[in-house]
Design a protein that fits this description.
The structure is a homodimer. The first copy, chain A, contains seven helices and six strands. In chain A, strands 4-3-5-6 form a four-stranded parallel beta sheet. Chain A has a two-stranded antiparallel sheet with strand order 1-2. The longest helix of chain A has 18 residues, at 35-52. In chain A, helix 1 packs across helix 2. By secondary structure, chain A is an alpha/beta fold.
Chain lengths: 197, 197
């Protein structure tokens, strides 16, 4: 009934995070209907990404050049490195526009359940930079989850011997956060870290 | 920070139904990470669909050939035509495997709000087939919504003068449906159309 081509596209779209088998079918029909306005540009955009986007050899960011535009930006402070789990986190930090150092993308978190040990983390390059004395401060910006905090403490331990400053992000009430809707852990953290006015 | 290529892909993916701006970002990162196992096959599948899939000139179905494999299947009964709103509905009916006639894809429903009048519906080809005496029975399988039922009655009116049989799908309790969870309209329809055992 449906051509194999359509089934193939549905099954590949169904593997994209955010889409399931039903929505992949809907997306496929939509793309076929909007052939010229959506399918063709989407193919072109994917090919552009495929040919032009590379992983930065230094920090693990994605960019059209390697080293990426952050690592090759001389105005940024390369002695300050912010460790993030994923590129999406790097983008979020860049969006905020407050951090002007370099990044280091881990690519994952320590997780006993998923079998991710210290070797699987992309830490060696960072430790080498630290050993060479290029890095004076590290900000560990990992998620406040069990895995995130385990990884955070592991990295802090690794960095201890080099005598550099190691920070983590402040915990507290988010902007726009109403106390009534916040979890107990966040409120506890906000009270512990209370600040004088 | 992100290359233009990545932003472009995110914004195009965000227009796919089922994905929004956030999930498009996640999908983009996922596709870049799984370059060889997902991005490359996806591009290829999209190109295959683009070059090979066409709309059937007779019924409006999508297939690699025109007329589609349903319209060109001599074993199917071309005197019985099932009218559906969309190709997804045609697929659903084919999946059930009970209908062995031809289809006619409307491509929309009458809707005063969306400004879709009778001219926007793909009805002429069907009416021509009916006028030529090729069609003896029509099953209108449109959704049980206000627009669906309006369109259903409009089509039934158009077909009245040709003296062919016009059916609609039975309404009642769905298989696996528990009465407690069904809406009143469905229960009313099921009682009205009660059947002797």
């Amino acid at each position: 009934m449906k051509g194999n081509e359509i089934d193939q596209l549905i099954s590949l779209l169904a593997r994209v995070p955010g889409l399931g088998p039903r929505s992949a079918k809907r997306a496929t029909l939509h793309l076929i209907k909007k052939r010229d306005s959506q399918l063709v540009p989407l193919i072109r955009a994917m090919q552009d990404v495929l040919t032009n986007v590379k992983t930065c050899n230094i920090c693990g960011n994605l960019d059209t050049k390697d080293p990426c535009s952050i690592c090759s930006d001389l105005k940024r402070d390369q002695s300050s490195v912010c460790i993030v789990q994923d590129i999406a986190d790097l983008w979020a930090l860049e969006r905020s526009g407050t951090f002007k150092g370099h990044y280091h993308v881990l690519g994952g978190l320590l997780s006993a359940i998923d079998g991710i040990g210290p070797e699987e983390l992309n830490l060696d390059k960072l430790l080498n930079k630290v050993k060479e004395g290029k890095v004076l401060e590290v900000i560990i910006a990992l998620p406040v989850t069990v895995e995130g905090q385990t990884t955070c403490h592991y990295i802090a331990d690794c960095l201890k011997e080099y005598g550099i400053k190691v920070y983590t992000l402040a915990q507290g009430v988010p902007v726009g956060g109403e106390l009534d809707y916040l979890d107990d852990g966040t409120i506890q953290a906000a009270i512990k870290a209370k600040k004088a006015l």
